Amino acid sequence: MTGGMQPWRAIFRREFRSYFATPLAAVFLVVFLFLAGIFTFSLGGLYERGQADLRPFFDFAPWLLLFLAPAVSMRLWAEERRLGTIEVLTTLPLPLWQAVLGKFLAAWAFSVVAIVLTVPLWMTVSWLGDPDQGMIIAGYVATALMAGLFLALGGVVSALTKNQVIAFVVTVVACFLLMVSGFPVVLDFLRGWALPGVVDAVASLSTLTHFTSLMRGVLDLRDIAYFVVGIAALVLATAFLIDWKKSA
Amino acid sequence: MAPLIHAENLTKRFGQIEAVRRVTLSVSAGEVVGFLGPNGAGKTTTMRMITGFLEPTEGQVTLGGFCLDGAPIQAKRSFGYLPEGAPAYPDMSVLEYLQFIGQVRGLAGQALHDRVEAVISQVHLERVTQQAIETLSKGFKRRVGIAQAILHDPPILIMDEPTDGLDPNQKHEVRQLIRSMGSTKAIVLSTHILEEVEAVCTRVILIAAGRIVFDGRPQEFEARAPASVQRNRMDHVFREMTAAGAEVRS
Fold first, then answer.
1. How confident is the model at residue B244, as a pLDDT?
2. Is A51 helix (H, G, I), strand (E, B) or coil?
3. Which run of H or E residues covers position A215?
4. DSSP assignment string, B162-222
C-alpha cells in the first residue's frame, strides 16, 4: 500500500459514476421525479387535503421504491457476471466484503440523489403553509432507509444470476413480500399452518409497518435498528453468496 | 529458488463431472509456460483455481510464497491475471479503467500515474486512452486486459489465451511483450496455437481430459513426433497425446 484509498472507495466511485455513464441515470431520475410529482399532487390530493405537508409523497414512496430500487440494484452483480468482469474484480487483492460494500453504497448513494431531488416538493409545501419540518425530515430518513433495505435485498438477488431481468423481477417480488409481510395478505396465508411464533416473527419483519411509524415522526430506535440490521445482514449475505459460488 | 507458483493436487468437480483431476505444477521466475490442451480439457478451470476465482474441490495453491487459502490478499498481490476474453467495464475509458485497477491495488498519486503511463506505452495504448472500452477493437481490448494485468508489475503473470482473436501483427507484438517479461517473471499462458509455444515458451504443459499428460521443454515435446513426420510436428504430438487422454477418460 502506498497510502492509496481503501479499495471499497475506489469501487464505490467507479460504480457511482457508472450509473451516470449510461442513459439509465437520466431515465431513472426523470421517471422517479415524474411519478413522485403525480403521486403527491394528483393521486395524493396534496391540494384537496388542505394541509401543507408531504404525507401524500411519503405514503406513496414505498410503492415507488418497490419498482425503482430493483431497477438500480439489478445490475450490481448480474452485470459483472455477464461481462465477466467479476473474474477481474474477485482476483484483485481486496477483501470481498469491500467490493460488496462499495457497490451497495454506490447504489444507495444514487438512490439518495433521486430522493434528494424531490426537495422542491418540500419547498413547495413550505411555501404554501407551515408544515411540521421534523416530520418531513423523518419521512426522508425513512424513505432513504427503505431504499437501502430494498437495494441490499436486490444485491443478494443480483449475486445469484447473470440475467438482469430475472434479478429485477425476483427483487420486486421479494421486496413486495417483505414490505407487506405484516398484512393480512401474507399473515392469513401463514396462519393456516405455521406456528404462531412464526406468524409473529414474519409480521415483525414488515417493512411497511416500520416505515410508517418512522414516517409519522416517531423516531423509535427499534424501527431504525430494523433497517440498519436488515441492510447489514443482506450486504453480508451478498458477500457470502458470491464466495459460495466460487466453490459451486 | 522456491517456485513462484505452486499448485498441489488441484481437483475440480462440477457435480458429477470431474473437470480437473489432481493437477500439480510449479513455475519459477524466468519460465514462460505454455498451457496447452483441447477446448474443454480444463485449462481455464485450472487457471481460475490458481487465481482464486474458483475454489478447488481438492488441493491448494501457493503464489509468491503465500497460500491462497490462508493469505488470499498477499497471494493475490503477487500476480496479474488476464481472464478469458479480456473482460473490462465497457462504459469506462481506457485511462479510467487502468486508474481504477491501480486504485483498488492500493496505488495512488505519482506512483499510480507513473505505472499507468508505463503500461500504456508498454502495450501501445496511447492512441485510445480517452476512448470508451466498448468502442475498442478486439486487439485493443485484449491489450487493455494485458495492461491491467501488468499494472503493478507483478512477479507472476497468468493469461488465458492472450492472443486469441488478434491479427498476425498484434499476435507478434503481444508475443514480443511476453518474451521481454519472461526473463524475470513466472508466466503461464494458455493457448491452442502451437506456433505460439515455439515462439515464446520455455516449457510446455499439456492437459487432456483434466489431467497433465506432458510437462517439459518445447523441444522435448516436438521430439515425441516420429521422424517420419516432417511438418507441423507439434500438432502431431498434440493430437496423439490428447486423443490418448480422451480414451483414458471414457
1. 59
2. coil
3. helix A207-215
4. TTTT--HHHHHHHHHHHHHHHTTSEEEEE-S-HHHHHHH-SEEEEEETTEEEEEE-HHHHH
> What cell numbers appear for B145 in the block?
486486459
Residues B134 and A188: their CA atoms lie apart, in Å, by 51
CA torsion, points B84, B85, B89, B93, in degrees to nearest 10? 120
Residue B247 has pLDDT above 50, yes or no: no
Instruction: Decide if B85 touches A, using CB distance below 8 A.
Output: yes
Please give the pLDDT value at position A192.
76
More confident residue, A207 or A147: A147
- Give the model's pLDDT for residue A3: 57
Measured distance CA(A42)–CA(A50) in Å, rounded: 13
Among A1, A22, A95, beta carbon nearest to B91: A22
Identify the residue with better confidence: A102 or A4: A102
Domain spans of chain A, in order of start: 7-173+206-247
Question: CA–CA distance from B7 to each of A90, B174, B213 (Å)?
Answer: 19, 26, 16
Residue A88 C-alpha, separation from nearest chain B C-alpha, in angstroms: 7
